[in-house]
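Lab notebook: predicted structure, single chain.

Context: the supervisor wants predicted structures on file for every construct in the current expression panel, including those that have not yet been purified. This is the next one on the list. No modifications to the sequence; it matches the entry in the shared construct table.
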Amino acid sequence: MPGVTIRTANPADAVEILHLLTAMHGEAPIGHAPIDTNRAFDFIHHVINSGVVFIAEQDGVPVGSLGCLPGMDWWSSDVLLKDAWNYVRPEHRASRAGYLLFKAFSDTALNMGLKRKSAVVNGQDIDRKDKFFARFGMVPAGSIYVEGK
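Prediction complete. Output recorded below exactly as produced.
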């Protein structure tokens, strides 16, 4: 059985990426605002055209995606490569999809001469995610708080 492969997305992939991100949104344990499909679709195209989007595929079927853009924090003029999203379908989390997506992100940052910045907005499995990011030399830099249900 072929393994997971990573490829760079193009505008024709936007609908499939939207399906992945809709699934990601649905997994959130807190009540995020509903998806505005038009805005989400426009943002996906923006990231494809202004940054880099990777798709993880198993047997030609998209099972995950990571989108990233160069950007700055409000307090600095240092440019970082920031993830816009990072998602792997639950049934593929035991595969190498997440690792390969983040490696592609990390390699891109290295090739661009930029440091990486990644966020976890879904409040599930934080310990597992912390360990995952630590394997890539990332350290926690705070927390995200939202108004509860």
